[in-house]
């Protein structure tokens, strides 16, 4: 009588491994969705903070007031930085799209030539799952993500 000595796996062993992989995948997928929302919030918060800092720097270097505002009517929402005197269509204006988030609080921020904002501001963005992040500009011009 011949013995089979193939050194492979049996069909039952392969099916058990596939079942284990399926269970692990079902547990991991919901966690990945939450991570993508957090990532989306983080990326857009950094983008907003970057545009605010850009406007602040340009206000100081140009010696004139720079404005930052939000176009929430467009899809995706946009953040715009531009010299207040020339408007959002100025060649040096900066526009950035905010993908996958909703801007719930969107004040207009004017940076004076000294780099100090005309008023404190808080910008709040959120995802569809209501996770949110706040970006604040304090009275001396410090931009923080909270």
Automatic annotation (TrEMBL):
<dbReference type="InterPro" id="IPR022346">
    <property type="entry name" value="T2SS_GspH"/>
</dbReference>
<keyword id="KW-0997">Cell inner membrane</keyword>
<keyword id="KW-0812">Transmembrane</keyword>
<dbReference type="GO" id="GO:0015628">
    <property type="term" value="P:protein secretion by the type II secretion system"/>
</dbReference>
<keyword id="KW-0488">Methylation</keyword>
<dbReference type="Pfam" id="PF12019">
    <property type="entry name" value="GspH"/>
</dbReference>
<protein>
    <submittedName>
        <fullName>General secretion pathway protein H</fullName>
    </submittedName>
</protein>
<dbReference type="GO" id="GO:0015627">
    <property type="term" value="C:type II protein secretion system complex"/>
</dbReference>
<dbReference type="Pfam" id="PF07963">
    <property type="entry name" value="N_methyl"/>
</dbReference>
<feature type="transmembrane region" description="Helical">
    <location>
        <begin position="6"/>
        <end position="29"/>
    </location>
</feature>
<dbReference type="InterPro" id="IPR012902">
    <property type="entry name" value="N_methyl_site"/>
</dbReference>
<keyword id="KW-0472">Membrane</keyword>
<dbReference type="GO" id="GO:0005886">
    <property type="term" value="C:plasma membrane"/>
</dbReference>
<feature type="domain" description="General secretion pathway GspH">
    <location>
        <begin position="45"/>
        <end position="141"/>
    </location>
</feature>
<keyword id="KW-1133">Transmembrane helix</keyword>
<dbReference type="InterPro" id="IPR045584">
    <property type="entry name" value="Pilin-like"/>
</dbReference>
<keyword id="KW-1003">Cell membrane</keyword>
């Amino acid at each position: 009588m011949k013995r089979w000595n193939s050194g492979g796996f049996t069909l039952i062993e392969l099916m058990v491994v596939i079942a284990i992989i399926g269970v692990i995948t079902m547990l991991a997928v919901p966690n990945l969705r939450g991570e993508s929302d957090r990532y989306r919030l983080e990326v857009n918060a950094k983008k907003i903070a970057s545009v605010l800092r850009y406007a602040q720097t340009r206000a100081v270097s140009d010696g004139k007031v720079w404005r930052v505002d939000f176009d929430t009517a467009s899809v995706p929402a946009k953040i715009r930085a531009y010299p207040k005197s020339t408007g959002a269509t100025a060649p040096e204006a900066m526009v950035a799209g905010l993908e996958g988030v909703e801007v719930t609080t969107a004040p207009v921020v004017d940076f004076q030539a000294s780099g100090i904002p005309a008023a404190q501001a808080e910008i709040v963005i959120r995802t569809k799952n209501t996770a949110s992040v706040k970006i604040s500009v304090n009275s001396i011009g410090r931009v923080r993500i909270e």
